[in-house]
Amino acid sequence: MAPVPLSHWGVPSGRMGKYTAEHWAYVTTPGKWPGVDFLRAAAVLLVLLFHLNVTGMRFGWIGVDLFFVISGFLIGGGLWEQMKEQKFTFSRFYLNRALRILPIYYLFIALVCLSNSTWVGDLDLSDRVSFESLVQTMLFLQTTFPYFAGTPFDHRVAPGGSWSLVIEEYFYLAAPILLYFVMKVTPKHVLAFVVLIALSGIFVRYASMSTFSPDDPNWHFANFVQAHSRYEELAYGVIVGILVRQGNNAFFESVFLAFGAALIGGTVLFLAMTPPFWDQPNLITRDTLWLPTVLGLGFAALTYGACGRSLSPLMVTLVARLSFPMYLGHIWLITAVFRPLGFEAFFSGLGSAGWPAFILVQIGVSFAFAYLLSICVEYPFIRYYRKSQG
Fewest C-beta in 10 Å: which of 162, 164, 184, 278? Predict the structure, then answer.
């Protein structure tokens, strides 16, 4: 599908007009796997609706699990393909990831600190704990360092949802090194190697949590927020990424699509039948041992089944391209803009139509904010990288 030209909406020509049109082409052009674009758009909308407390969407937190599988598929599968064709370089990969992630991420660290030190909270960065927490957040240590070192952490300096970026960053750091080593030593067994890593996930969680009591409140933080307990979902994505790049099969696409839908649907049903988990996922205890495995397998099957399908209408592609700034942006808007300014109270006074209107306004503002972030902050760095690589 060709990008929709901005000239239809009267965007002026000139240098700024060309840049705007170039960015529009970027956010409206489907990727190599339009079906995966559809899943990425679904993932960010699931998380958005979960944070907006939309009735019937309390399972939306599983959108993060879908993000992990998609990252494994795109990044891990791409690494395997580049290494196989001898086109991979560590410097290019890490520069690409840094330019893709850090500008938006550091901007939100600044926005979170600004809002929590002025109109939302009473954050004081001169305080030692707050300052050390800020440094840890900038280095993607905001979950792992307090967990392993047991030091206090001031959560007011960390953007909401950034715990998942910690897991992603560890994957970006480790995946190319491990794949490069295996490709050099035994290239025919790369897939088997990744399968073993994926299968080890549930056993690692069991071993590391073996001393936890059934009602220990730390199950969720230990098994859902740490890289050592969620890496298997990324590994499942890498497996699918390698399989698809070796040549996917239309029959197996349909089989895996049905299998993945059944597995994810069954998991959502289980959550719905367990009210505490449905309302507050942080209350999940021993079930954190198997949930990442089931969600990883289910979303990996869906990814395999969707990658060969053309599911890329304009809005799907647009949301997929804006998923990263939308993911961080909507959480900040909810905590630092909508709530402090009393949006909820205003719309509640509108009667029965108030709450649906409030949800739609938040979605619309989050979308517009994500587009603004993309064109002003995200895309200049993506554009620089693309041009520097020729």
Answer: 184
